[in-house]
Amino acid sequence: MKTDILTQANITGDERGQAMLEFAGSIIIFLMLYLFFITIGLRIADYSAVQKVARDGGRQAAITGDINKGLEKARQTAWMWKLDPGKTNIYFYSENYGQRNFITCEVKYISSPISIF
After folding, report:
1. Phi, psi of 112 (to 5 degrees)
2. Domain spans of the chain, in order of start
3. Exposed, middle or buried by CB within 10 Å (0-12, 13-18, 19+), for 42?
4. Could you say which of 43, 49, 67, 95 would form a disulfide bridge with 81 (CB–CB 3.0 to 4.6 Å)?
5. What's the gap between Cα 8 and its chain centre?
6. Tens digits of per-residue pLDDT, 23-43?
7. DSSP-assigned beta bridge partners for residue 96
8. Euclidean distance between the first and final Cα of the chain, in Å?
């Protein structure tokens, strides 16, 4: 009879490592989710900054009619939004349709997974 009580105590009473194992499994999942959302947030910030660079550069080029001034303004805006100049490519296209001159600003940015590094 004593052996049954000891066996039952050994089976149900030895749960010291269970909480640590559950914590280790859940913290890995939460850490991965946390890093995923941080990365997505940084990508959205880069996407927004690229749009602002293209808008400001295109606006300046359209107002002045000079692509070089638009390029200078786009580079200033990229610097202001902390985009890496080595990863930022800014292109301007000018097309004439009759008496109208259309200027297009295209910005390409190579974003790293964690862009603050």
Report:
1. -85, 160
2. 18-109
3. middle
4. 49
5. 54
6. 999 999 999 999 999 989 989
7. 101
8. 66
Within a 10 A sphere around the Cβ of 49, how many other Cβ atoms? 21
pTM across the whole model: 0.72
pLDDT of residue 76: 95
Beta strands in the chain (DSSP E): 88-97, 100-109
Phi, psi of 9, rounded to the nearest 5 degrees? -65, -40
Mean of pLDDT values over 8-27: 76
Is the dihedral angle over the CA atoms 67, 106, 93, 84 positive or is it negative? positive
Exposed e or buried b per residue across 61-91, where buried means at least 16 C-beta atoms within 10 angstroms of its C-beta: bbeeeebeebbebbbebbeebebeeeebebe
- Taking only the tens place, the pLDDT of each residue in 57-103 is 999 999 998 999 999 999 999 999 999 889 999 999 988 888 888 89
